[in-house]
Amino acid sequence: MSTVRKPRSEKKTTELITGSSAGPVRELTLEESLGAQIRHLRRKGELTGADLASGAGISLGMLSKIENGQISPSLSTLQSVCRALNVPLSQLFATFEEQRDCSFVKAGQGVVIERRGTKAGHEYQLLGHLLDGTLVVEPYLITLHEDAKPYTSFRHQGVEIIYMLSGRVLYRHGNESYEMGAGDTLMFDCQAPHGPELLIEKPMNYLSIIVYMRQDD
């Protein structure tokens, strides 16, 4: 008995989704796309908003509206902005949605930095960095060496997620302490005092991911 197969074009396709509850991506308007490109190029050039506004001969308020896609700037204004950024006008009209940031760091090649409040024996390796977006995400691989000392007074904006990789620590957040070993996770509001209270088993490694709103510059 022969079987009739449906043409490939008639097969239904199911869109795959992740377990996240994040909403769908919204396509940017032309004004939003231009503004996002200008902000991206400004930050890439390490310019403040005041620097770019001054160089383009426009007010900081107008630049802010342009970068946020709130107005349709004239062609002459865009040309002035491009001259200040030292880029061709055509670069602003590149499709911004196709240029989403991505960061890749090979094993052992994270940038060792001195984070605000870093203490002796606490080593921070930054594992990635994105230039754009309303949120800043800072992923660190933290190592507490044999000479590390407890410190429970870190305080800053945002939310932090700690995932323990090795060693054991009593980690304090506010008025509570949590004993953590490999595989344990702690997520908390960073505005409360926090940090390792008792270093039970050294050396220790854990991932620390800090998320906060990007400040306008």
TrEMBL record:
Q: InterPro entries, alphabetically? A: Cro/C1-type_HTH, Cupin_2, Lambda_DNA-bd_dom_sf, RmlC-like_jellyroll, RmlC_Cupin_sf, TransReg_Diox_bact_type
**What Gene Ontology terms describe what this protein does at the molecular function level?**
DNA binding; DNA-binding transcription factor activity
Q: What GO CC annotations are associated with the protein? A: cytosol
The UniProt record lists the keyword DNA-binding: yes
Domain HTH cro/C1-type: from-to ranges: 38-92
Q: Which UniProt keywords apply?
A: DNA-binding
Name recorded for this polypeptide:
Helix-turn-helix transcriptional regulator
